Structures are given as C-alpha cells and as structure tokens.
Amino acid sequence: MPRGIKRRDFLLGSAGVMGLAGCSRPKAPPARPLVAVTRAPAYSQELYGAMRRVLAEHKLKVRGRRVVLKPNLVEFEPASTINTHPMLVHAALEAFRALGAEVRIAEGPGHRRGTLDLAEAAGYFQTIPNFEDIFTDLNLDEVSPVRLPHPVSRLDSLYLPHTVLGCDLLVSMPKMKTHHWVGVTLSMKNLFGVVPGGVYGWPKNVLHWAGISESIVDLHSLFPRPFAIVDGIVGMDGNGPIQGRPKAAGVIVSGHDPVGVDATCCRIMQIEPSRIGYLALAGGLDRLEAKNIQQIGERLDGVATPFDLILELRSLRRDSA
Amino acid sequence: MSEESAAGAEKEDSSLETIRAAQNPDGGWPYKRRGGSWTEPTVYALLAHAAGQTAAPGSGRALAWLSAAQRADGGWPPRRSVDQSTWVTALVTLLPPEVLGAERHARGVRWLLEQSGMESTRAFRLREFLRKGELQDGPAQSGWPWFPGTAAWVTPTSLGILALKKSYWRQPSAELRERIEAAQAYLFSRRCADGGWNHGAARALGYNSEFYPETTGQALLALAGTDAEPLAESFQLAQGFLRECRPSGGAAWLRLGLLAHQQLPAGIPSFSMPCRTLPDVALSFLARRAERGYNIFVD
Questions:
Q1: Residues contacting residue A128 through CB under 8 Å, at least 6 positions apart
Q2: Residue B53 placed within a domain
Q3: Is residue B274 part of a domain?
Q4: How many helices (H) does chain A have, and how many strands (E)?
Q5: CB contact under 8 A, A199 and B78
Q6: Which helix (H) or strand (E) holds A318?
Q7: What torsion, rounded to 10 degrees, do the Cα atoms B135, B137, B139, B141 define?
C-alpha cells in the first residue's frame, strides 16, 4: 500500500530516504544506547538551560545540519496536557540553534485539519517567535513514495513529506502519554505524525489497517537513528492519548535510540516495556532490558511514578501477573 | 446596498483575488501559496468561482490540470504524483458534468459508487463474525474511506453524499438513491453522544468521544433534506459552538451545514478567524455566499 507505485517512483522515494536524509540511513543501534533522564519539575525558564545540557550529554554534532523538531499536536485543548508543551519545543529550538543547526518545526496531526490553528491554540505562536515561518504542516507538504525495505506491517510503501525526508536529524518530541490501543505513545508512535494526511486522510487509517504496532515499527525502520526528546514534565495517564488526565512525572527523557528511550519512559510510567507490542517487535526483548540501556541522569527509582491505565490495559503494569 | 452587505461583497471579492493569485502555472492550486498543486484546493478554488458566478481567469488551465490528473480507474488522486485514487474524487465530482466533461464526470461517479468502507464489506463482516461473533455494519450503513482499503469516515462520507446527490438530481436512479441512503445511515450511526460528529469514532473502548465543528458541519450538509427532528440536538450543538469556533474551516462548515437546514441563527457575527490555507479561504467564501442565498453544496 499504496499499490501500483511505479518503479521510477520507488527509486525516487528511496533516493529521498537514503540520500537526502542522513537521519534515516540504516545503522545498527548502539550496543547499549545512551538514554538521559533529566529532572524538569515545571515548564519554566530553567528548561532552556536543561535542554542545552541534554544536547551536550548526547554530544550532538549538528553544525550546519538541517534539524526537524517533530512535536505531538493532537487537539484544541490548551488547558489539557494533550500536546507537547511549546516551551519545551522552544527550548529545543534554541539549544539546537546554539549548536549551529538550521531548525524547523513540523507536525501532521492525525485527527484535526487546521494544524496551524491547533498550534496556535496550544500556545506555539505565543511562545515561539516567528513560529509560522519555521513551521511545516506535514499533512500538506510535498511528498514522495518510499518503499519499506522489510515491512512487518501490511504496508509495502508510504508517501512521506519532503521536509522529513530531506532533514539531517529528525527529533521526535512526543508527550509522555498512555494510549488506549497500544499502551503508550512516546517517541516511536509520534512518527505517525510524519505520514501525510493530505494523501491518507484524517485519521491516517491506512496505518491502523496495516496493524498499528507493525506500522510503528515500519516507520521507525525508515528513520532508525532519529533523536528523541520526550516531554514527561506533565504527561497524560488514564484514557490517553486524548481523554486522559494530567500526570506529572517531572522529567525529560532523551536519546538517539527511540526503542531505548521509549523503554525507559515505560519504566518511569511503571509499565512493562516488553508488554508493549511495538517495542517488543522493534527491539526484541533483550534490547528492552534495563541492563542493555546505558541510562544516565536521574535514577529511575527516584522519578518512576505509576501512570494510571484503563481496565483493558492493566496487564501492562510492571507489577501485574 | 447596505453598509454591511457592501463590506461583505468587498470581502468576497478579496477572497477571490486571494484565490486567483495563488494559482500555480500548471493550472492547479496549492494548499499554501507557492506550494505544489493538489486536487482538493484546486476543486475548492473552482467551486468558489462558480459560487461567485465569476469565471476564474485560469479555469481552463485548472480543468486541464484536473483532466490530466484523472486516473484510468476513473478516480482522482490527491495530487498528480500520487498513484492512487482517493476521497478527493467525491470533491471533483461536485463540479458539474458540463464543466468537468460528461464522460469524465460519469467515470468519477462510477469510481465513487464502487468504493465503500472496509468494515461494511462482506469479507470483513464474515471475518469479524467468525472472530468475535458480532455482525458489523452491512451495506445498509455504508460510508466512504479517505483511502481505498480502509474504514469509512465522516468527511469522505459526507462529501460522497453531496456528490452523489448532485448526480441524482440530474439523473435519478435507484442505485444512487440507495447509496445515498446507506451513507446517510452511516452518518447517523457515527453521531457522537453530544449530538455532533467527530472524524467518525463516536466511542472508543466504551468512552464517548466529542464532536468537531468541521465534521459536524459536513454531516449536517450531507443530511440536508432528511427529517429535521432527529437532528434537533445537532442543530443546538452547532449553533452554540458557532460563537467560539476558532478554525475558519470549522466555522465555515458549521455555517454551511446549518444553512442547509435553515438553522443558522440570526445575529451570529461574521467570522474573522485567519484563513491559513487556500481551502479555508474558499470555504469561508462559500459560507458567506450561502448566507447570501446560494449554498453551492446543496442548491
């Protein structure tokens, strides 16, 4: 899916992924990926310094590189914790710019069509100067077809936006949330937002029909070395990702390996990572084990806090049988 | 001409100017100025000119762009570089056959008639029955998907109904009538507990979901001509939300939907939200035209 793409288009798409996007060149994950857990109790000015320290810890070399920050924008509910907080995105923007990167912000929401209206309601226009000039609506961006080399879902290709195909580093910036279908939505699930609604619609239902967990893994395979910065300062628990309740965890979780980052977030949420279907599919159970992740910063037992789960997902709890 | 209607006419003119200025050299329109051409904004640009009873200076090029975009299966892709016919076929077939070309139009309508949400297909229903012992929606409640091979949703279903209704008015047939009724039944089945519509998931895991203004307006438009009584709660919800509706696209669809049922309350102020895409500009224009008596989707 989509069926019938011409060979020439496949090649074009592959060239887009392999040639334009340094961020998506296949590389084996590091033996013990580095994941940083940074304490951040509130959305305050201190975030700006914290974000510079986060990038320094990961020794990011982005001078002259095109960096795309991909937050999670979902709904028009400024008072809720549904969207990635604009101050965290602004802090990341400033920190990457300070390292000499050329930075854009881009997102393609899954349900609502007015992406800029959503961003405005979420406070992005107020928080980030000249926001509209540096933002791309991924739902309406130019697209090229990209073949999935080893699909685990029923997809064999996807049209993807040029903004993400052409960047050097894609930074997934999700909110730390529970998800009523797949358990948690973190840096890997956040990549659903790069699939263009202009081609697939609102919602991007091809991904559901191809298998949600499997599609997450396939998308991850197209961007196997992005960077992830998870907004766990105030996340969402209960009936997430839309109707849940605010849940403060007071952390930013970051790293180059989305599987390691998301597994660490699960531990903070007191959810067993090996019970999240897409994590198990993407990483294999060994890769999810804490001993196989080089975790720095805050100790997990100092920041872990149970995220409430709806009844149907209680078996994901770390202490459940 | 009163001061208010003069201001309205001026705004309409400026909308058409904005639309004309955004046309690409290839004849199509982009979502945002200087972007590539897509089918959806191209159709809205043409509909706005039709509603304004003004020939678009570049309409010949636009129609040539649309003609070249039609695929061998009769449907249209969202943009020419996408090798798949999708929901935008419903939008294109809102254009009259005399504008689009009778044969092109007929092939588009045929493509539309052959599509339905996967959940109402026989194969899927059988599989789900064997798996869960539950019988899913059948052809009697059948909407349209955004993308073939997936489930039906409110926006493509509403636009499909509007397109088939126009065809039915021109040339009534049992096939068209039955499909329109099945799609309207789908819309009723997906109405949220609050009386409105969201993208098409009224409940998830036992929890009620909330309505969206844009899809509520689209569904109301598509249900024009049906019994008003079951829609009373929907009207009330839409009317209440008009004053706080932020996105211009959502406000425009709500107005178009309420106007189709003569339910737009008097005294609702003109909306002044920013139009951030070309379809938003065109839809706001179409809503203003509808307030002046011509609702291009249902008239």
A1: A86, A89, A90, A93, A105, A134
A2: no
A3: yes
A4: 12, 12
A5: yes
A6: none
A7: 150
Q: Which amino acid is at B55?
A: A
How far away is chain A from the Cα of B247, in angstroms, using its nearest Cα?
Answer: 6
Q: What is the C-alpha separation between B285 and B267, in angstroms, rounded?
A: 19
Kindly write down the DSSP assignment for every residue of A88-100, as one continuous string. HHHHHHHHHHHTT
Question: Helices B213-222 and B248-260 meet at what angle, rounded to 10?
Answer: 30
In a domain, B237, yes or no: yes
Give the number of domains in chain B. 1
What are the Cα distances from residue A104, in Å, to A17, A49, A97, B27? Answer: 18, 20, 10, 30
Pairing of strands B207-208, B203-204: antiparallel
Which residue, among B119, B153, B212, would best test binding to A if mutated, counting the most A CBs under 10 Å from its CB? B212
For residue A132, which amino acid is it?
A: E
CB-based contact, A113 to chain B, within 8 Å: yes
Which chain B residues contact residue A121 at CB under 8 A? 246
Which chain B residue has the Cα nearest residue A207?
A: B150
Find, in chain A, the residue whose alpha carbon is nearest to that of B151.
Answer: A205
Token readout for B124 is: 């899927």
Band of pLDDT at residue A14, cut at 50, 70 and 90: very low
Check B150 against A205: CB less than 8 A apart: yes
Beta strands in chain B (DSSP E): 203-204, 207-208
How much is the pTM?
A: 0.93
Q: Do B145 and A208 touch (CB under 8 A)?
A: no
Are the beta carbons of B129 and B135 closer than 8 angstroms? yes
Residue B267: domain span = 209-299
- For residue B13, tell me if it sits in a domain: no
Query: Which residue type does B236 have?
Result: Q
Residues B292 and B264 sit within 8 Å (Cβ to Cβ): no
Across the interface, whether the CB atoms of A145 and B83 are under 8 A apart is answered: yes
Q: Give the residue among A314, A241, A242, A244 at the shortest CA–CA distance from A272.
A: A314
Residue B156's contacts (CB-CB under 8 Å, 6 or more residues apart) are A201, B87, B90, B143, B144, B145, B146
SS3 content of chain A, % helix, strand, coil (to 5): 40, 25, 40
pLDDT digits (tens, 9 = 90+) for B75-128: 999 999 999 999 999 999 999 999 999 999 999 999 999 999 998 888 887 887
The residue to which tokens 């685990």 are assigned: A152
Tell me which residue in B79, B83, B249 faces A114 most closely, judged by beta carbons. B249
In chain A the domains, ranked by start, together with CATH numbers, are: 19-316 (3.40.50.11440)
A315 within 8 A of A247, measured Cβ to Cβ = no
Q: What is the pLDDT of residues B33-80, one digit of tens each?
A: 999 999 999 999 999 999 998 877 889 999 999 999 999 999 999 999
CB atoms within 10 A of CB A189: 28
Whether chain B has a CB inside 8 Å of the CB on A7: the answer is no
